[in-house]
């Protein structure tokens, strides 16, 4: 049926049996037989023939949409097959939101390449809604986003919960207090992540909820740069707990200060992928491998 579907798309796109037969290098009677065979297999008419003009039926339009999608999927398969034959390697595309790019993605890539050294991993970054669109349109095999996603076309697998933590220079004045509280952030000099990510949205929501007005000195789109500037600017920051590593804190002479209200501001990092049956066995295996990295031992 794939051959007939391809010919059917050419007829639709050429809007003419004559033009389509020329484009396909096929006689018009032979092309007509192919379309008739497709209609017979589907049990319905795909065109209304109005004089010399062809008009798609409702099912014809649905069939065309499916045929275009199938053709694109087939082309993607041939491309991947050619890449594998040429290099003996396979390509895997991960979409990562800006936050997960800096927190979860490096560890995941390291784990995947350790399991499958032949794997070529490509990463596409963007805001959460952009990653959802990339996965839905199959421009990425899966996505890692710092949010729970409800989409009828996608599966969403929770990986882990994250929350904000207060990070300070080791000799910051707040360290003189025995039990810092959320209101201590009011008026505090801070360096924050740039607007537009779930992390910054959650930060701003926190400030609004507790009516806090920190002294925002800078807004930067790099967690690493923020950490390096805290000592110089004598400022604090709020970062996702998942990002921080003991060595980072030691190298920059920083401390994490526990505040109860911050621990209650949680967000779930999730794995999203298309729930259709078209996923290759290899992609399904990698999805299982990623999910397994976060299962409780």
Task: Give an overview in words.
This is LysR family transcriptional regulator. Residues 1-57 form the HTH lysR-type domain. The protein is α/β, with parallel strands linked by helices and 297 residues long. 46% of the residues lie in helices and 24% in strands. Strand 1 and strand 2 form a beta hairpin. It is elongated and about 90 Å long. The model has no long low-confidence stretch (mean pLDDT 83).
Q: Indicate the overall shape.
A: elongated
- Pairing-aware structural class of the strands and helices? alpha/beta
Distance between the termini: 48 Å
Instruction: Give, in order, the helices and strands.
Output: HHHEEHEHHEHEEEHEHEHEHEH
Radius of gyration, CA atoms, in whole angstroms: 27 Å
Give me the number of helical elements: 12
Oligomer: single chain
Tell me about the largest β-sheet.
7 strands, mixed
Domain module tally: 3
Estimate the helix proportion, in percent: 40-55%
Strand tally is 11
GO molecular function, one term: DNA-binding transcription factor activity
GO cellular component, one term: cytosol
InterPro entries: HTH-type_LysR_regulators (IPR050950), LysR_HTH_N (IPR000847), LysR_subst-bd (IPR005119), WH-like_DNA-bd_sf (IPR036388), WH_DNA-bd_sf (IPR036390)
Keywords: DNA-binding, Transcription, Transcription regulation
């Amino acid at each position: 049926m794939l051959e007939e579907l391809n010919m059917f798309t050419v007829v639709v796109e050429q809007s003419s049996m004559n033009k389509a037969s020329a484009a396909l290098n096929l006689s018009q009677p032979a092309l007509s037989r192919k379309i008739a065979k497709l209609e017979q297999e589907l049990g319905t008419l795909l065109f209304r023939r109005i004089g010399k003009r062809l008009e798609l039926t409702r099912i014809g339009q649905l069939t065309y949409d499916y045929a275009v999608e199938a053709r694109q999927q087939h082309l993607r398969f041939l491309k991947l097959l050619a890449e594998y034959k040429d290099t003996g390697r396979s390509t895997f595309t991960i979409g990562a939101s800006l936050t997960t790019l800096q927190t979860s993605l490096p560890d995941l890539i390291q784990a995947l390449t350790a399991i499958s050294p032949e794997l070529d991993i490509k990463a596409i970054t963007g805001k959460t809604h952009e990653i959802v669109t990339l996965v839905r349109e199959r421009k990425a095999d899966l996505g890692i986003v710092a949010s729970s996603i409800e989409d009828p076309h996608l599966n969403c697998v929770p990986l882990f919960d994250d929350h904000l933590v207060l990070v300070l220079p080791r000799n910051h004045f707040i360290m003189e207090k025995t039990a810092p509280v959320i209101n201590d952030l009011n008026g505090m000099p801070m360096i924050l992540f740039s607007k537009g990510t779930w992390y910054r949205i959650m930060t701003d929501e926190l400030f609004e909820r507790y009516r806090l007005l920190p002294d925002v000195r800078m807004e930067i789109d790099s967690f690493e740069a923020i950490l390096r500037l805290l000592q110089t600017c004598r400022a604090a920051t709020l970062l996702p707990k998942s990002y921080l590593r003991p060595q980072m804190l030691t190298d920059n002479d920083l401390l994490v200060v526990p505040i109860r209200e911050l621990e209650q501001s949680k967000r779930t990092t999730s794995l999203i992928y298309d729930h259709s049956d078209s996923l290759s066995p290899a992609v399904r295996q990698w999805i299982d491998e990623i999910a397994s990295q976060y299962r409780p031992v």
